[in-house]
């Protein structure tokens, strides 16, 4: 117990010192590696990648013994110490590195924030990320990690704001879209969560993370339509009159989701496969959303950021390619065959998506 108390007191003292200095820009100049030092760092990275953290640490420390101002060695040392779960030493090393003017400054702030979080000091972690953002406002990983920390603290509003900032800085960072989708889902924002999840799947339709995010999409597309217990031909739609609107009013689009699901359950659609029904659902959903664009709150992130992207997708007739592409992680044979037979169409869709002009960060 005494050791734990001593460790925490050191962390608190360190955090206080950091808080006092965090507004100051770095003022030290690093010393570049010699050829030999560069080779030692490369070998250290190789050892780290093999999981041999002690060997890597020895190499970095040997470099720093000869060149204490080597920021690359400081960063790699901090990384290996963290992987070894020596978060306090990693934190101290990262703090040293953050005093130097270098391209690794943002990486040092990420290490500082992450280590403080792992040491049970999320408030100080938030301070570190904010300090890094102040110095490096264009580095998207800082607000992304800030969002992760806020989420762990249960501060979902702040987490969403940070995730939005990360996305605005880098529209192609899939993890930020997945995080924002999860945050919106946890907060009860069904349509925004769906849109963010869809964007993630365009970027990472085949990754290990894709199946979990696809589940969010399928749950949202299921809507609230159900068949009657006593009358199978009767379709019921549940409407939530108290749905949240602080992220924008998606009432009409939520209704569209349920109506599109209801239509898929009618007699005339009995011969269609699930993926064909999903294409029809998305076509209907995007059509309603497009009609609502001028009525939505354009100042809200989902309306300003995601809705125009999906509107243009529909205008260019890419919805079918989009649906098959984002559902490929479920391994459905029909989906995989369609993708194989329509490579040119999918390629056109992905090329358009890559070149899409996203709104710039404020």
Structural overview:
With 362 residues, the chain is an all-alpha fold. Helices cover 68% and strands 2% of the residues. The protein has a two-stranded antiparallel ribbon with strand order 1-2. It is elongated, with a radius of gyration of 25 Å.
Relevant terms:
about 350 residues; mainly alpha
Cα shape: elongated
Kindly state the number of beta strands: 2
Looking at how many chains there are and whether they match, the oligomeric state comes to single chain
Instruction: Let me know the average pLDDT.
Output: 88
Q: Spans of 5+ residues with little confidence (pLDDT < 50)?
A: 1-13
SSE blueprint:
Blueprint: H1 2-21, H2 35-49, H3 53-66, H4 71-83, H5 87-97, H6 105-118, H7 122-135, H8 141-152, H9 156-169, H10 174-187, H11 190-203, H12 210-221, E1 225-227, E2 235-237, H13 251-264, H14 274-292, H15 301-315, H16 319-326, H17 333-341, H18 343-355
Antiparallel strand pairs: 1-2
Helix pairs in contact: 2-3, 2-4, 3-4, 4-5, 4-6, 5-6, 6-7, 6-8, 7-8, 8-9, 8-10, 9-10, 10-11, 11-12, 11-15, 13-14, 14-15, 14-16
What is the structure about, briefly put?
The protein has 362 residues and is mainly alpha-helical.
């Amino acid at each position: 117990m005494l050791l734990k108390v001593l460790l925490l007191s050191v962390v608190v003292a360190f955090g206080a010192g950091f808080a006092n200095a965090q507004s100051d820009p770095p003022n030290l100049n690093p010393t570049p590696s010699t050829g030999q030092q560069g080779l030692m760092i490369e070998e250290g990275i190789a050892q780290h990648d093999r999981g041999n953290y002690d060997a890597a640490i020895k190499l970095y420390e040997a470099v720093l013994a000869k060149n204490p101002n080597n920021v690359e060695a400081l960063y790699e040392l901090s990384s290996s110490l963290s992987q070894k779960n020596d978060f306090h030493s990693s934190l101290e090393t990262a703090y040293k590195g953050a005093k130097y003017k270098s391209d690794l400054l943002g990486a040092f702030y990420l290490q500082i924030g992450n280590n403080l979080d792992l040491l049970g000091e999320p408030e100080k972690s938030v301070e570190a990320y904010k300090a890094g953002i102040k110095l490096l406002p264009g580095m998207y990983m800082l607000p992304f990690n800030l969002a992760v920390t806020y989420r762990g603290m249960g501060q979902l509003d702040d987490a969403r704001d940070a995730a939005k900032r990360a996305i605005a800085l880098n529209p192609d960072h899939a993890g930020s879209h997945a995080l924002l989708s999860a945050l919106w889902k946890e907060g009860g924002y069904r349509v925004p969560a769906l849109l963010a999840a869809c964007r993630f799947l365009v970027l990472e339709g085949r990754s290990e993370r894709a199946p979990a995010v696809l589940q969010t999409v399928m749950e949202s597309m299921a809507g609230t339509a159900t068949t009657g217990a006593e009358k199978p031909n009767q379709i019921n739609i549940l409407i939530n009159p108290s749905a949240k609107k602080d992220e924008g009013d998606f009432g009409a689009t939520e209704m569209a989701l349920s109506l599109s699901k209801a239509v898929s359950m009618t007699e005339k659609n009995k011969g269609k496969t699930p993926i064909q029904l999903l294409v029809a659902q998305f076509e209907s959903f995007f059509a309603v959303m497009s009609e609502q664009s001028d009525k939505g709150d354009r100042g809200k992130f989902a309306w300003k950021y995601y809705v125009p992207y999906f509107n243009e997708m529909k205008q260019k007739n890419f919805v079918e390619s989009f649906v098959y592409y984002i559902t490929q992680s479920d391994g459905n044979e029909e989906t995989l065959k369609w993708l194989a037979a329509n490579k040119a169409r999918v390629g056109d869709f992905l090329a358009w998506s890559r070149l899409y002009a996203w709104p710039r960060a404020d």
